[in-house]
Design the sequence.
């Protein structure tokens, strides 16, 4: 087995299996090696991938299919599949191969523009559309500052406004009446709601019961992802909030903050604040964008209920930086209430 022999001998083992045509055995052993190295292919394992990457396209197709059919989860073989498929063009890639590669790509936090562009072209050619999970990784890739030129045209074709993979986002996207508020929420770019954005928010023609819908979405945020992400040795990506969807949550929080509050706002926002602010392994707070926006929203709501939530958060086990924000927000909220 590749995972049980010394690193320098692994390349010889791969060559032997390829020469005998034992692609099924090779696929099984590569998956086991990927589990051992957490899909992080460095040192001698990098030489294994370089050799596989140099194989003819047809042989790579066979290997990709064998790996995809045997892997327990696409997230476990993201990098393995991506490198084996490197530099394959849409014309060189049949649909069965592309489906395995798309599953693996959807499990990535971000990808490489050219790779995602090829997969989108094959998907559109074969199905007429680009899978929502692939759009999600494209949005995250662009969000994190990777060159988005290749990705923008694909993202613009997407029907959904939010990234698939999180129950709250999928529920919100499935609600036709939510579209105006989601569009406006995604226009927020700063850490506070601007005056013009706030004025436009108050002028939106929102459906009856929209605040309760937002509360319900917030309650879904902690649910497990519907599309699992790859794991790293220092943090679990499934523990985080999708970075693109986090921007929408920030906008929805500010929408509550700049419109007339109701008593139930505070509990919904406070629960989201605590979930986003709590520390996760290797990351610090789960999502600082959402946590900071939720704390600010409690302050801007300016109700006794929101002050009570801030006091509750002050006693919660949150990172020191978040506690400091909560203390300042509570002081400002208390000052406003004292003048009412």
Sequence:
């Amino acid at each position: 087995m590749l995972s049980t022999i010394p690193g320098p001998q692994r390349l010889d083992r791969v060559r032997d299996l390829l020469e005998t045509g034992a692609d099924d055995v090779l696929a099984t052993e590569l998956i086991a090696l990927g589990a051992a190295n957490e899909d992080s292919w460095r040192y001698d394992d990098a030489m294994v991938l370089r050799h596989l990457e140099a194989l003819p396209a047809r042989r790579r197709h066979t290997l990709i299919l064998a790996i995809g059919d045997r892997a327990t989860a696409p997230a476990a073989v993201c990098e393995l599949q991506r490198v084996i498929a490197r530099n394959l063009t849409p014309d060189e890639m049949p649909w069965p191969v592309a489906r395995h590669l798309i599953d693996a790509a959807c499990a990535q936090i971000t990808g490489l523009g050219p790779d995602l562009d090829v997969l989108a072209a094959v998907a559109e050619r074969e199905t007429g559309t680009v899978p929502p999970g692939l759009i999600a990784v494209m949005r995250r890739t662009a969000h994190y500052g990777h060159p988005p030129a290749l990705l923008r045209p694909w993202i613009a074709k997407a029907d959904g406004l939010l990234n698939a993979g999180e129950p709250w986002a999928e529920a919100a996207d499935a609600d036709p009446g939510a579209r105006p508020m989601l569009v406006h929420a995604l226009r927020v770019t700063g850490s506070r709601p601007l005056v013009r954005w706030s004025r436009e928010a108050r002028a939106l023609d929102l459906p009856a019961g929209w605040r309760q819908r937002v509360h319900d979405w917030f309650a879904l945020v902690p649910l497990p992802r519907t599309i699992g992400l790859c794991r790293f040795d220092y943090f679990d990506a499934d523990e985080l909030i999708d970075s693109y969807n986090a921007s929408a949550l920030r906008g929805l929080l500010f929408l509550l903050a700049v419109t007339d509050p109701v008593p139930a706002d505070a509990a919904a926002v406070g629960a989201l604040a605590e979930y986003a602010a709590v520390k996760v392994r290797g990351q610090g707070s789960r999502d600082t964008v959402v946590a900071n926006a939720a704390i600010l929203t409690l302050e801007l709501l300016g109700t006794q209920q929101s002050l009570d939530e801030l006091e509750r958060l002050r006693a919660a086990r949150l990172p020191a930086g978040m506690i400091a924000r909560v203390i300042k927000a509570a002081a400002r909220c208390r000052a406003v209430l004292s003048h009412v």
